[in-house]
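ENTRY TYPE: protein
WANTED: fold as tokens:
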Amino acid sequence: MDSDEKAVFCHCGSPFNYPELKPIQSINAHPSNCICIKFDPTGKYFATGSADALVSLWDVEELVCVRCFSRLDWPVRTLSFSHDGKMLASASEDHFIDIAEVETGEKLWEVQCDSPTFTVAWHPKRPLLAYACDDKEGKYDNNREAGTVKLFGLPNDS
């Protein structure tokens, strides 16, 4: 890509030049379908979650995988970087959310859930994670959809 060309990433992680929108590069990120992609707020990395239950962390400049997170057993449904780009939350049909330190890959927290998690999102300025789970079973009325949003990171969370 020439220095005056601009790259735009599509949902599959392949950059396209602008304004022609012709593919300029494609990477094989996973052996299975990629389900979710997120860029970190610093612009240094992007993460992909896949049907192979892996989360891959990619260097944006080099387009190389720098780290894989393999603590989930089910296809990765959702990803979110913290506001400072230091933490990465990932979730699936496993009954927990994995929160990892981006630079080392170490597990920081495992947030327990009663059901599969559909989405996770960090607050834009604080270490506060919002998430939504499939709450049709359990303590809620099984005859209706439950629209529960939960929070992790409040002062009494551990």
Summary: DSSP finds no helices and 13 strands in the chain. The longest strand covers residues 34-39.
